[in-house]
Amino acid sequence: MNKAENNLLETIAKAKAGNQIAFSTLLDSFWNDVYGFQLLRTKNENDAEDITIQTFSKAFDKINTFDENYEFGTWLVAISKNLHVDLIRKRKKNILAELEAGKNSEVHKVADESPSAEDNLIIEQNLATLLGHIKKLKPHYQKVINLRYFNEMSYTEIANELNEPINNIKVKLLRAKKLLAEIITTK
């Protein structure tokens, strides 16, 4: 055992006896090692410093459990590593709790998309106006508009219903929409 190791063991023994100068010496001697280790792990100066402070606090509280057969620096780094893991778990738990709370709050924040009484009245008036415009079209144009937009039938279904080729249905529908647009804009 060399002189440095001997001095370290003496300092640890004094710290175990409650000597404040010994605690201060250990803090000064190992601060950079623990802080540097945490800085590499966390990549965050604030977190590294907080964990380092917690490490020394915990180590000094448990100094009597330190076994002199092991390296003091390794013991500190092990405590530091465990504190970092605990911090990560705590943050992950908090994030998951926030996500869950966010999901629940999102459920409550969903807007009521159903139309109000006023909206229904406006829709009915607009629909009545639109139907009035559609009635100005020739009957075969009215029929394709009604089948396509009010009965929501496909081009194929309309072609089968009217017993006409699908291309004729497409042309009739285009023509009906164009005529309806002209009626609406001239109003």
Which helices and strands appear, and what pairs or packs with what?
Blueprint: H1 3-16, H2 20-42, H3 45-61, H4 72-109, H5 117-134, H6 139-150, H7 155-162, H8 166-186
Q: Can you give a write-up of this model?
A:
- This is Sigma-70 family RNA polymerase sigma factor.
- By secondary structure, the chain is an all-alpha fold.
- Helices cover 81% and strands 0% of the residues.
- The relative contact order is 0.06.
- It has helices at residues 3-16, 20-42, 45-61, 72-109, 117-134, 139-150, 155-162, 166-186.
- It is built from 8 helices and no strands.
- Helix 2 crosses helix 4 (72-109), helix 3 crosses helix 4 (72-109) and helix 6 (139-150) crosses helix 8 (166-186).
- The protein has 2 domains: 3-109, Rna Polymerase Sigma Factor, Chain: A, CATH 1.10.1740; 117-186, Orthogonal Bundle (Arc Repressor Mutant, subunit A), CATH 1.10.10.10.
What characteristics describe this protein?
RNA_pol_sigma_r2, Sigma-70 family RNA polymerase sigma factor, mainly alpha, Arc Repressor Mutant, subunit A, RNA_pol_sigma-70-like, sigma factor, Rna Polymerase Sigma Factor, Chain: A, 187 residues
Average of pLDDT: 84
- Domain count, please report it: 2
- Please report the distance between the alpha carbons of the first and last residues: 104 Å
Radius of gyration over C-alpha positions, nearest whole angstrom = 40 Å
CATH topology heading of the largest domain: Rna Polymerase Sigma Factor, Chain: A
Q: What's the CATH superfamily of the largest domain, by name? A: RNA polymerase sigma factor, region 2, helix turn helix motif
The best one-word shape is rod-shaped
SS class: mainly alpha
Helix proportion range: over 70%
The count of strands amounts to 0
Domain RNA polymerase sigma-70 region: 33-93
Family: Belongs to the sigma-70 factor family. ECF subfamily.
Protein name: Sigma-70 family RNA polymerase sigma factor
Domain RNA polymerase sigma factor 70 region 4 type: 134-180
